[in-house]
Design brief:
Layout lengths: L3 E2 L4 H8 L22 E3 L1 E2 L19 E3 L5 E20 L8 E6 L16 E4 L7 E4 L8 E8 L9 E12 L25 E2 L2 E2 L4
Antiparallel strand pairs: 1-8, 2-5, 3-4, 4-10, 5-8, 5-9, 5-10, 6-7, 6-9, 11-12
Family: Belongs to the PITHD1 family.
GO cellular component, one term: cytoplasm
Protein name: DUF1000-domain-containing protein
């Protein structure tokens, strides 16, 4: 599994992309394409959209999301269109509150703790401890035409809670097309299916005498 974190990931891109006034950072940051009011967090203290921040706010640790009853956490993230995902961006911690893994499920809108253990993630990554934003490259072929993504943190690295500061996505967005209206046309008329009109031969009108 390929993933970059810290010095090998977003850290190398910070000077290049994090320009003054550049809210997105990466040109393909999907922050504006996330349906933020409808982000759902399960077993969490706070609202899911708390960690859906702009690129310029990614290192802000004043706002975060933390698991509640135990160290498991689910975030359902809907998009406003169709997405081809390139990478996940994640800042978590500190130390043993960092999730051990992150599991991604494409287009699983209603997944919960009861059924998630029986489902195979579309892709899964180990999460290292660190203060930087990690960039996790996904297998793009498995994340095309995505309308939503469910992010599952199955356990912390020792603490009773899992804490997330920032969650972001990189990729391509396109407007979701409505279902097409299908009209069936008769490709070619079959003369045997049609009653001949008086005065017509093979569809051609007879000349007047």
């Amino acid at each position: 599994m390929t993933h970059d974190h810290g010095h090998g990931g977003c850290g190398d891109h910070a000077n290049e992309h994090d320009l003054p006034g550049n809210v997105l950072g990466y040109q393909d940051n999907l922050y504006n394409q996330i349906d933020r009011p409808h982000v759902v967090a399960l077993n969490a203290v706070g609202q899911g959209q708390t960690v859906i921040k702009s690129w310029s706010e990614r290192n802000d640790e004043a706002l975060y999301l933390e698991s509640d009853a135990d160290d498991q956490l689910i975030l359902r993230v809907p998009f406003t269109g169709s997405v081809k995902l390139r990478a996940l961006l994640l800042k978590a911690g500190p130390s043993d509150k960092t999730p051990a893994k992150v599991s991604l499920f494409a287009n699983e809108n209603n997944i919960n703790f009861d059924d998630i253990v029986d489902k195979t993630p579309t892709q899964e990554f180990d999460v290292p401890q660190g203060r930087e934003v990690g960039e996790y490259q996904v297998r793009a072929a498995k994340f095309t035409n995505i309308s939503s993504i469910t992010v599952f943190f199955p356990a912390s690295q020792g603490a009773e809670e899992t804490r997330i500061y920032y969650l972001g996505f990189l990729g391509q967005w396109s407007e979701r097309k409505a279902d097409p209206i299908i009209t069936v046309y008769e490709a070619q008329a079959n003369p045997a299916d049609h009653e001949k009109i008086q005065g017509m031969i093979g569809g051609a009108q007879l000349p007047q005498q």
